Amino acid sequence: MEKKKAKFTTPYTALIRRSVDEYVAICLELNVSARGADLPEVEKNLKHAAEDYLEYAKETALEIEPISIKELAEFLRDTSIAEPERKMKKRYFHNIHQTKRYCTTVFR
């Protein structure tokens, strides 16, 4: 029987960017990342990665640290960034802010 994952009790912030072949997302508070072919997939993958990480941290008493400035700069500096899709839909996000190359979302 598979364990039921707990719902998030705290909202987490994700930064999502489009690279040449895929979307890449990182959770700023947990320093967890995920990839996906489109916006819904990357958001789903990041949420699952965050759930797994939080479960592991709880089981092992791991101290959770947010992303460092150095790692965030590396994420933002990726040289393979493509022009964003012109029809990027906001319906995939909750509390979204979108720029030309990046978008942020808060997930629960």
Structure report:
The protein is an alpha+beta fold. The chain has one domain: Double Stranded RNA Binding Domain. Strand 1 and strand 2 form a beta hairpin. The relative contact order is 0.24. About 18% of the residues have low confidence.
Keywords:
108 residues, alpha+beta, Double Stranded RNA Binding Domain, five-stranded antiparallel sheet, 2 helices, 28% helix, 23% strand, globular
CATH class: Alpha Beta
Secondary structure tally, helices: 2
Total discrete domains: 1
Shape: globular
What is the secondary structure topology, with strand pairs?
Layout: E1 12-18, E2 23-27, E3 32-36, H1 39-60, H2 69-76, E4 97-98, E5 102-107
Antiparallel strand pairs: 1-2, 1-5, 2-3, 4-5
In a nutshell, what does this entry contain?
By secondary structure, the chain is of the alpha+beta class. It has one domain: Double Stranded RNA Binding Domain (2-Layer Sandwich), CATH 3.30.160. 28% of the residues lie in helices and 23% in strands.
